[in-house]
Amino acid sequence: MPLSGPCASCVENPPPFHAARSLFVYAGDVRSAIVASKYSGRPFPARAIAERLREALCGEWRDLIPDGAPPTVVPVPAHPWKYFRRGFNLPALIGAPLARLLRWPFDPLALARSRGAVPQAGLRLADRLRNPAGAFRLPAGRTAPARVLLLDDVYTSGATARDAARALKTGGADHIVVVTAARAVL
Questions:
Q1: ∠89-76-130 over CA atoms, to 5°?
Q2: Beta strand pairing status for 147-155 and 175-183?
Q3: Which residues lie below 8 Å from residue 71, measured CB to CB, with a gap of 6+?
Q4: Domain boundaries, the chain
Q5: Would residue 113 be called left, alpha or beta, if left means φ above 0 and alpha means ψ between -120 and 50 degrees?
């Protein structure tokens, strides 16, 4: 059952995005599939997740897209070294079929990692909140799309989403929603 209204932390310190939604709780088989994909090179059901996200965005999450104007799907980028080691960026693997299914623009290069951050996995909450600060930027000469669906695999503390959204806002984005495959319950 979805929560109604923003959390206490978001009321105290409003995020630079309009809303965040996740398909699943980051636990059990969902967690195992994401971890196996990211760290063991196992296949991930990106197309199936994209189809479920499309259903949600066209149904119960329709309120995320004001006036029905399609946003640009922007996956949270992996650090180049992580991309090189893994050979893929999980949010982009989900984002490409999602954008095709919805017939929305897809821009995997709208956002770049400006620096590497210590991996969020295993960090305490306080460290997670500080870790990605300043990690994202728009590539030189780029302007952010006005409407953005920022896509990531897991939403934990919201620090990555906040920093990525801040970079997009600085680059001209007006309306940003964050969508993830899973959400960690802290």
A1: 120
A2: parallel
A3: 65, 104, 105, 145, 147, 148, 149, 175, 177
A4: 44-154+164-172+180-186
A5: beta
3-state secondary structure of 33: helix
Phi, psi angle pair for 16, to nearest 5°: -80, 15
* Contact assessment for residue 94 and residue 168, using Cβ atoms and an 8 Å cutoff: no
d(CA 112, CA 139): 6
pTM score, two decimals?
0.86
In whole angstroms, how far apart are CA 131 and each of 39, 48, 76, 172? 20, 31, 15, 24
Write the single-letter amino acid at 20: A
pLDDT digits (tens, 9 = 90+) for 110-160: 999 875 554 555 555 555 555 556 789 999 999 999 999 999 999 988 889
State the residue for tokens 């017939």.
Answer: 103
Nearest CA among 36, 50, 47, 123 for reference residue 86: 36
Work out the pLDDT band at 62, boundaries 50, 70, 90: very high
